Each structure stands twice: as C-alpha cells, then as structure tokens.
Amino acid sequence: MQKDDSKVNRSLKLNLDCVYYVGEKPCKFDRLCEGCSEYKPTGTKILIIKLAAIGDVLRTTTLLHGLKKKYTNSHITWITDKGSLPVLQNNSYIDRLLSFDLESLMRLEIEEFDILICLDKEIRGSCLASKVSANDKFGFTFDKSGNIRPINKSAEYNFALGISNELKFHHNSKTYPELIYETCELKYDRAYEYIFNISEVTKRWAQDKLISLGLNLSQPIIGLNTGAGNVFAEKAWTIEGYAKLSEMIQNEKLGQIVLLGGPNEYERNQKIAELTGAKLIDSGCNNSIEEFACIVSCCDLMVTGDTLAMHIGIALKKVILLIIGSTAQAEIELYGRGTKIVSTKDCSPCYKKKCVENPTCMEEIKPEIVFEKLKQILPRK
Questions:
Q1: pLDDT score of 4
Q2: What domain range is 259 assigned to?
Q3: 356-381 pLDDT, tens per residue?
Q4: Strand partners, 79
Q5: Across the beta sheet with 44-49, what order do the strands follow?
C-alpha cells in the first residue's frame, strides 16, 4: 500500500524562530512545524560574548538577571571558551551555550541577533563582535584600524579602566557588576548575584569525600585557597602566612581547616602542611571545577586571594576573607558576605607580572591581621 506523503509533497512550513526548532533532527516534540501547538517564538535574540578568564565569565552571569528582567521574552546565546563551559552549564537563564570553536564561529557569522554584548577587551571576542550581525551592540569591538574600541558611549568608562592604571587603581569605585550593567545600559540592582548551579550528586560526593578525610560537617569548616594563578605577581598570600594562620585557628579551636587548590598548588599545599603543626585536611588538587565548587560549598568561610576560587565562593554565597595586593579591589563585589584585607603598600595595586619589591605587598600582610578578621566574620554553628 502506498503511504500518504501529502504532508511533505506540499510546500513545507518551518517555524525557524521557534525555541524548539533544531533543523538537522526532530525537535523535542518530534513533529512538523505546521499546526504545532508547542510553537514558541524566541523573542528578543541576545548574544553574549565572554570567553575568558573562567572567574570573569562566572561573575559576568550577574548580567543575566537584568537582561531577563528587561527582555522577558528573550533567547540568550552565550559563547565562551571550552574551559569556561563548566561554570555556565545548567544555567536556566542561558538558552544556548556555545563553545568558541570553528562550528560556532561559522554559524554566528551568518546568524542575526537583536542585541550583541561583548565584554571581552581582547582580540578574539572583539573581532567576533565586529563580524556578528545585530541591531544593537554593547561593549567592545575590533575595527579596521586594527584596534579594540568601545562600541557604545556607555562602554567608554569601562574601556578607559583598561588603558589607564591611574583611573583603575586610584579613582574607580565601581564594582565589576556595576561596570557591566553600565556598559550594557541596564539598571543595576545589588541583588543580582552570580548564577552558578552545582549538581546535588556532586555535592553529596564532596560531602562524602570530606567525611572520609576526617571532617565533621556539623562543625565550622575553614577553607584555605592558597594559590592565585601565575598571571600576576603577588595575587597569592604567602606560604608562611597560611601556615601561621592555620596554627592560630587550631590553637583557638575555631574550626577545621581544609586546603584548597588546583594542580599548581600541589607543592604549595605540601609546604604549608610541612611548616605548621596544625591538622590540615588536603582536599586534593586534581578536582574538576564542579568537584572543587562542591568542596567549597561545604566550607563556612574561605580565605583566598583574587582568583577563580574566590569567584566560586562568592557564587555559592560563602563568607569570603579576601587578601588582595596587586589587583584592583574596588571591582570585587562580596555582596555583604566577608571582608577584604587590602595591601597598603604604595606600589599596590600594580598588575605587574614580576615583583621586585622587598617586602612584597603580600608579605606585608601579617597572619595576626588575617586571624583577627577571620574571628570577626567566621559564621558560628
């Protein structure tokens, strides 16, 4: 018996603007577009270009609140580096998450958007911003002179911070969330915090891991994130400082101490453990970003420098004791949880890749100062 193919013999109707439309395979409802009761237009199409660094990508998620509030019927695409994908996955505000690769670049060169937002003051992101078609653009782009520049007037102050150390280090008082909201001409609300979702399965894994290492989850847990990357000098507090602080915490029985870090902190954490007589729990330096985040979620307070771990702690609404020297402290928003110990050294901040000062800005921050601040802000159980 010949099948009735009348539905495909006539002109095919496609709802190309439907949020469920896939194209190369059936949509989730497995039906042709014509007459589909599930048809849902994408609304305002928004593209966010924020590729790196991972911590900066995570703190940029604050922008999603304002976008969804202003554009209630919208479809947000975010393109980022492969390494930054873990901090954006499972984010209900993002409708489509793309990795910065050839396939994504090919599609974005053809696709059209209502709004483009580029918050990367670097070559790759700004070049992509110049190529993508959008009715309105905010942030930064790359022009034919071969240089990065602000796209809109409201992005000029943010851009100026990147080319004037005087402005960035000594005059600016705006936080990063305030700056990106201003850049995108959106109304800022301090209630708009980072958005970072961790799975309950991995969270339970982290809890089980810490229990197996001897931790009591019903007692205060203090995380010491001892590193801060290799890009800027003096972002990490001293090994000796962390060792001495650990002894002080244990002597006053304030809580259990967990060493945090990535692969670069393996030797550093070993040295801290060797220098102190305090009991330290090493959570390992080979955890994935989500595993690391779930370990942080078990902490009541984290002592850290300006680094990815700090942003993860902020995203998870942890109390943060931030020790900061070479980078700009004004841009960091702790949302009222924790405090900052900022170097008072004349040359700080500097963003230098090598420090020749003796003592350095971090060496001038003494364990006694850190310990007193820790006692003031440590949550009680």
A1: 52
A2: 200-377
A3: 888 999 999 999 999 999 999 999 86
A4: 49, 98
A5: 96-99, 74-80, 44-49, 112-118, 133-142, 148-150
Q: Is 220 found in the same domain as 154?
A: no
Looking at 183, 209, 230, the residue that finishes a domain is 183
Q: Quick one: 164 and 206 in the same domain?
A: no
Q: How many structural domains compose the chain?
A: 2
The answer on pLDDT for 24 being more than 70 is yes
Taking alpha carbons only, the member of 148, 153, 155, 157 closest to residue 129 is 148
- Tokens of residue 21, six digits: 């439309």
Can you tell me the distance from the alpha carbon of 210 to that of 214, in angstroms, rounded to the nearest whole number? Answer: 7
Contact 261, 285 (CB under 8 A): yes
CA dist 85 and 51 (Å) reads 9
Q: How far apart are CA 126 and CA 283, in angstroms?
A: 38
Same domain, 168 and 61: yes
Q: Is the same domain home to 223 and 371?
A: yes
| One domain for residues 164 and 219 | no
Same domain for 330 and 371?
A: yes
Q: How confident is the model at residue 10 (pLDDT cuts 50, 70, 90)?
A: low
For residue 9, is pLDDT > 70?
no
Give the per-residue pLDDT at 1: 47
**Kind plus residue range of the DSSP H or E element containing 243:** helix 239-251
